[in-house]
Design brief:
Elements (H helix, E strand, L loop, with lengths): L1 E7 L7 H4 L7 H16 L4 E8 L3 E3 L4 E3 L8 E3 L12 H11 L8 E7 L4 H12 L5 E6 L18 H14 L2 H5 L3 H6 L5 H10 L7 E7 L6 E6 L1
Parallel strand pairs: 1-7, 2-6, 2-7
Antiparallel strand pairs: 1-9, 3-6, 4-5, 8-9
């Protein structure tokens, strides 16, 4: 049974050591993420699933290790307590692990689920239905960014379709509109480099029948990339 959701962006720049001198520019986003994780803890889940985009899908056990060394920072993280063998966390789950290490989350089992950014919508729906099933109290931390094409200096340059795409995604996340998330255009999301599309569609299927209400905590586009923070409870 799904009892709470936190939706957060996943740029490594959320980590101040990575952002360096530009760290204050994302202070509001960090604060919103901390508030969102507080909602998860307050729901008293029995299990936490962390979902994030990656080049390849996969599962990561509690204690899986991640690193920001690829971004020039000597900083390691683990997904919850422990030291699990296996592959390194993808960047989105490493950012989630960093957020969790600094939160007051309940001491519950945690697992990471990497979702291929190119996963078709119907397969996202099947995965979400699997994750949302069961009788235990499950909370989701869903990582993902909006478009990367909001300004001329954005990673994907300026695309006039980006702002409307992000606005609709933020509205759907902020109102827990499952149908709207499921209907996000896969090809358009790919063209706009919106990494959150697949995780959000997994979320939409996982939340079916849960009856959760949404609240949008943050919706901005620093660096020309759409970042949204929302909670469902």
């Amino acid at each position: 049974m799904l009892v709470a959701v936190a939706v957060c962006p996943c740029p490594p720049l959320l980590v101040p050591e990575v952002a360096s001198g530009a760290a204050p520019e994302l202070d509001a986003a960090r604060a919103a993420c901390a508030d969102a994780l507080g909602v998860l803890a307050a729901a008293r889940p029995g299990r936490l699933l962390v979902i994030g985009p990656a080049e390849h899908g996969g599962r990561y056990s509690q204690g899986a290790r991640g690193s920001f060394r690829g971004f020039g920072v000597d900083l390691d993280v683990t997904l919850g307590p422990g030291d699990a063998p296996g592959p390194e966390l993808p960047a989105s789950l490493a950012v989630a692990a960093w957020l969790l290490e600094r939160s007051d989350r309940a001491d519950v089992p945690v697992e990471g689920v990497a979702v291929d950014t190119a996963l078709p919508a119907d397969q996202c729906a099947r995965l979400g239905a699997q994750l949302g099933g069961g009788d235990d109290r499950v909370a989701l931390l869903v990582m993902g960014d909006g478009s990367a094409c909001r300004t001329l200096k954005a990673p994907g340059y300026l695309d006039e379709r980006a702002a409307p795409f992000d606005a609709e995604a933020a509205r759907a996340l902020g109102t827990a509109d499952l149908a709207a998330l499921a209907a996000l255009d896969t090809e358009l999301a790919r063209e706009l480099q919106a990494s959150g599309r697949a995780p959000w569609q997994v979320l939409a299927a996982a939340a079916g029948g849960a009856g959760l209400d949404g609240t949008l905590l943050y919706d901005e586009a620093p660096y020309g990339v759409g970042y949204a923070v929302a909670t469902w409870s």
